[in-house]
Amino acid sequence: MKRRAVLHSLTPEITCIDDAGESVCYVVCGKERAAVIDTVNGKENLKDVVREITDLPLVVINTHGHVDHVGGNGYFDEAYIHPADLALYQEHYAMVPAGLPSCPLHPIEAGARIDLGGRVLEVVHIAGHTPGSIALLDRRAGYLFSGDAINGQLWMQCPESLKLKDYLKNLEALDAIRPFFSELHNGHNVEGIPASFIDEMKAGVRGLLTYGSAGDDDYPWFRGTAKRHMLRSNAWILYTPDKL
Ligand SMILES: [Zn+2]
């Protein structure tokens, strides 16, 4: 089978693993431990790939419960996930193609600090895409690992997605930590995007809540048809009218 993982070194301590263009995950190394942020699709042994990067003890964190971010959990000893995504996790993990049993899960919530030795990841709850979506703040790198909670193709049309007004409040709450990061690194793109994209996203959501969906085109996805709201740059939000 052709290898799926392609490694991209973002800094000497941070590697992005691209899983055949379907989703990405990150390995963040401290002096004592390394964090694995998401486990992609489970279609090849992710732990073997991570071991090409580091021999440090691992702490695995899922940004949310969707199958393309938790699929490789079974290759690891344990993983952390926000409790609000536990039910979603069970539903999605059943879709993992390898049929690998899940590792044990532990809850992780806003404010938790994962000390890797000389580098700390702080858990930030950004409910929206899913109820238990989290981001991880790395002040040392100036990165916010945002999973699917903030990205250029935001999916808010899922049944489990929050209403847009509630997502907006969670974006606004990020103002408190904005001085501590300059780049967003999401769960689908190797390239980071400037933190200022959060302002574009907030403006887009506010526009949608103020003016409604007139002018937004239909966008078919695998569970039906959503609406697509374009942002200033080439980015967009998918949603269904019940999220307004
Ligand atoms: Zn997702």
Key words describing this protein structure:
244 residues, alpha+beta, Metallo-beta-lactamase, Chain A, globular
Description:
- The chain has a single domain (5-243), classed as Metallo-beta-lactamase, Chain A (4-Layer Sandwich).
- The termini are far apart.
- It is 17% helix and 32% strand.
- The protein has helices at 46-51, 67-70, 86-93, 164-172, 197-211; strands spanning 5-11, 14-19, 23-29, 34-37, 58-61, 79-81, 105-107, 113-115, 120-125, 134-138, 143-147, 153-155, 183-186, 193-194, 217-221, 224-230, 236-239.
- The protein has a 6-stranded mixed β-sheet with strand order 8-9-10-11-13-14, with no helix packed on it. Strands 1-2-3-4-5 form a 5-stranded mixed β-sheet.
- With 244 residues, the chain is an alpha+beta fold.
- It binds zinc ion.
- Zinc ion binds at residues 64, 66, 129, 148.
Short structural description:
With 244 residues, this protein is of the alpha+beta class. It has helices at 46-51, 67-70, 86-93, 164-172, 197-211; strands spanning 5-11, 14-19, 23-29, 34-37, 58-61, 79-81, 105-107, 113-115, 120-125, 134-138, 143-147, 153-155, 183-186, 193-194, 217-221, 224-230, 236-239. It contains five helices and 17 strands.
